[in-house]
Amino acid sequence: MKFIIQLWLFIRQEISTLAFEKWIYETPEIETFLGSELYLKLISLNFGDQEKVNAFKVEIWDWLSTHYPDFIETTYGRLTTPWEPVRFFAAKCRSCNTEFDLPLLSDFSYGESIFQSELGNYFNYCCAIDNKVWDIVSGLIHEFYWDGDYWFIFAACADRVHSQNMGLLPRCPHCQSHSVDYSNKTPTRDGHIHVASFRTFMNLAPAEQLSFIKKTCALTRLSD
Ligand SMILES: [Zn+2]
């Protein structure tokens, strides 16, 4: 059971890649649990390569869902994948000319957005439909005057990723400039990004949630 939990925490980004890697080396019994094929992939994984780590997480997720569907369903509710498949497109920073990939949603997407971390190197997917956090946040915004984009506030309520606050696209991962040229014309690759979580925000008392949102709205207005 502890193996499943540890793998799950890793998939959900609830423990760092570094902590997970350390755990792997301290837990040789995991070989018997995973089977030699998957174990070999795990120990030869380059943990410094975020793309490879994410691809491996998808594989572990498939494996867990196949072998332990009941555990995941009863412990974590509805069996939903914690990733969203997305397409990346070519983007270029106007400030420093760095070329990079940006995940974009289709023109037909509705009620969805992609968050990007403050240093520009991590992404989260978020869907507002049937999302109780969205309902809470928009309810709190209605308590005072706010004419901006609700997604700005919603992104700010998302859990930090690798200690970085989340915001909306786009941002250059090299110089963090928002001045970026991009379009959904030149796809570069397909990938998976994590679905945003809101644990920290949801653990706040309602009064704290309201004051957090008020502060975020004020800061967003100042930076306009
Ligand atoms: Zn730049």
Q: In summary, what is this structure?
A:
The chain is α+β, with helices and mostly antiparallel strands and 224 residues long. The protein is built from 10 helices and 6 strands; from the N terminus they run ααααααββββααββαα. It has a 6-stranded mixed β-sheet with strand order 2-1-6-4-3-5, covered by helices on one side.
Give a description of the structure.
The protein is of the alpha+beta class and 224 residues long. The protein folds into two domains: 75 residues, no CATH class; 140 residues, no CATH class. Helices cover 44% and strands 21% of the residues. Strands 2-1-6-4-3-5 form a six-stranded mixed beta sheet, with helices on one face. The longest helix has 18 residues. The radius of gyration is 19 Å and the shape is globular. The N and C termini lie far apart (50 Å). The model has no long low-confidence stretch (mean pLDDT 87). Zinc ion binds next to loops.
Basic shape = globular
Number of DSSP-assigned strands: 6
- The rounded Rg comes to 19 Å
What ligands are attached or bound here?
zinc ion
Question: Which descriptors would you attach to this protein?
Answer:
224 residues; 2 domains; binds zinc ion
Topology, pairings included?
Blueprint: H1 2-11, H2 17-26, H3 30-34, H4 36-43, H5 50-67, H6 69-76, E1 83-93, E2 99-104, E3 112-117, E4 123-127, H7 132-141, H8 150-157, E5 166-168, E6 180-195, H9 199-202, H10 206-222
Parallel strand pairs: 4-6
Antiparallel strand pairs: 1-2, 1-6, 3-4, 3-5
The structure holds zinc ion (ZN).
Zinc ion (ZN) binds at residues 93, 95-96, 98, 172, 174-175, 177.
